[in-house]
Write a structure and sequence with these properties.
extended; 50s Ribosomal Protein L17, Chain: A; alpha+beta; three-stranded antiparallel beta sheet
Length: 163
Amino acid sequence: MRHGVKTVKFKGGKDANDMLMRKLAANFLLHGKMKTTLSKAKMVRPVVEKLVSKARVRNEANKNYLLRRLNDRAIVEKLFDNIGPAVSKINGGYVRIVRLGARLSDGSEVARLEWVYPIVNETPASVKPARPADGITESKSETAKTAKTEEVKPKAKTKIKIK
């Protein structure tokens, strides 16, 4: 019997469910808001709440716990630097679910996960580009992007002969 068991089984089994929760939590912590189905939002909220509770106090044990759960150093640093101090005096209830109604395509309930308290969402520089193009630094790549936009040449028109 499943008395008191709140877990919902999504497609793919236990490992896929764990990875789904990890990715949803990481995306929410990275962007600060998320729009997903209601059942996924209900499942990811307690995961995020536990991670934020650990981020309130910066020590090795909490850092190791967060690294084991999220597997991303940049998000862990963001948790300790931005999110942890913002909610350090609050005991739980960091995230809320706002229902948005049914999706037109398949009729599933859609919800938005958002912070209850205002949190400054500063993404660290290591999160933005995953891998710069062949060792080009950001300043060089920005100048290369602007140079490309200025040097746009129109394509030569080709004439097609029809017999």
